[in-house]
Write a structure and sequence with these properties.
The protein has 451 residues and is mainly α. It has 18 helices and no strands. The longest helix has 37 residues. Bound molecules: 4-fluoro-L-phenylalanine.
Length: 451
Amino acid sequence: MKDRGSFGSKFGVILASAGSAVGLGNVWRFPTEVGNNGGAAFIIIYILCVVFVGVPVMVSEFVIGRHTHANTISAYSQLAPGTWWRLQGVSGVFVAFLILSYYIIISGWTFFYLTESAINSLSVSRDYSAYFNDFVSNPWEPVIYAAIVMLMVHVIIARGVQSGIEAFSKIFMPLLLVIIIVLVGCSFNMPGSSEGLRFLLQPDFSKVTPSVVLSAMGQAFFSLSLAMGCLCTYASYFGPDTKLVKTAVSVSVIDTCVAVLSGFIIFPAVFSVQGVEVNAGPGLVFITLPNVFIMAFHNVPVLGYIFSGLFYMLLLLAAVTSAMSLHESVTAYVHEVVHVSRRTASSIVSISCMLLGVTCSLSFGLWSDFTIFDMTIFDLFDFVASKILMPIGGLVICLFVGWYLDKKLVHDEITNQGTVPFRFFQSFIFLIRYVVPVAMTLIFVNELLFR
Ligand code: PFF
């Protein structure tokens, strides 16, 4: 395709890819997992998973995307014409579509909380559990907020790779990092916050079971946006001089730092308030934190106002940059294969995803009794996408790059045709041929048998 977009600078490449990786998974899911699974012990295991599993898979996706300069489905068709490998491309785009449909609903929740904190409504003492449940079970409100966030994502994607995705990431990713640093500073200064820090920094290995290791691996995969066609699609817009390994390492470092720093925001704040449970599950950011903000700042409410506003702004920015990459993965396919303009492709994706999103949203209220395999629609989508198709996708990507593709092609792509030295090529091949496939199989079996 001649008129494909491309990123304009290496800085843009890193910020856009990091934008995909840094998302609700970092600020919301990671601290919850840390709280449930032994604090620092979990963080150490998580980092090992990122290094030995996440980075190799990310480099593999970059190889596929940059070599073909095509959407994910066409990429597999080009590299392995007439074979079943194409199904991995189909699965990637399908998973991106599925995840976007529920991810956008949660993004809508964060937008609602941001607007509530902007009008100072989160400074009122009330039962935040009921408040949250009332909101998410309302048939209209969450859908309207999600639709507004989808509209923002839609406008960015329709503008194209350089003036949409890259331009937005260049402004808002640095802003996101500044917000995190400000919030960490505020959180450290809360009275009693040192207990939260101790919790984060003192590893409790007694809580580490094989299933904790597998959930660290699953979390690393989700957080790095792997196996959904997103990074493969972004890599298809990389220039010939983009260094793939360096980019993968930079993105993983940024993503992991943001996740750990989110823990540094949340735990000192939570521990500074008596009687709040640390492992409050997914309600942590929507139920526990509003209470924490009120209690911690009851003497200086204006600080609570600023803290909560910045926090939900952080969540929303993280959500939008990730949703952009999910959207782009599907839009690139529709644009290039169905041969419609980028704007039309983007509209098709936004509208159809929103329609599916409505069913996810209703599963918190009107349709909460409707279950399939004992799961609501929302849970089912999450289960199929991130627990089943994601590990299978990780496995297939590694088999494809490690065993199917010509090693010379992989080497040439990683080293930019021999111009960038890569001393660990053999270790990389070893990891994606043996280590990652075993890890992916274990995650998958664990999800299926012990869910
Ligand atoms: N990595 C994002 C997060 O941590 O929230 C979520 C995500 C984005 C997952 C894009 C998958 C993806 F392809």
